[in-house]
Design brief:
84% helix, 0% strand, 127 residues, 4 helices
Length: 127
């Protein structure tokens, strides 16, 4: 579980970084709160942050489920795939939102392997 805790900490720090990028873009492009539109680069940073938040709701508990009922090291590796995929998503989305697909799909697959694996592992233990 040590590796799971480390990877999960990295994922949460990454989200904090994305939040910082939004704040910096808000200042740089003069987008006053509570507005969430105004400049394309601010809007892209904001959408990256929001999409990452939406994904965290799935990936955080899924990583713990998978680690508990299947294998902790594999959960950490899948969590690391998610972490890397979010940087791919971030870089692609900031350049051109239409190119974000690969980063999104990699993260989605990693989180859902953990979710379904955790569910399967828990059900397996019933028998």
């Amino acid at each position: 579980m040590l590796y799971v805790a480390i990877v999960l900490s990295l994922v949460l720090l990454q989200y904090s970084y994305f939040s910082f990028v939004v704040g910096a873009a808000r200042g740089k492009y003069s987008v006053s709160a509570p507005a969430v539109s105004g400049h394309r680069y601010f809007e892209r940073a904001y959408r990256i942050q929001q999409n990452t938040l939406e994904q965290l709701i799935i990936v955080v508990p899924s990583m713990f489920l998978f680690a508990s009922y299947v294998h902790p090291m594999t959960a950490a590796i899948l969590g690391l795939v998610f972490f890397i995929s979010r940087f791919i998503y971030f870089t692609a989305y900031m350049k051109d939102p239409k190119s974000r697909g690969m980063g999104f799909v990699l993260g989605f697959l990693a989180s859902h392997v953990m979710l379904l694996g955790g569910l399967g592992g828990a059900v397996w233990r019933l028998f």
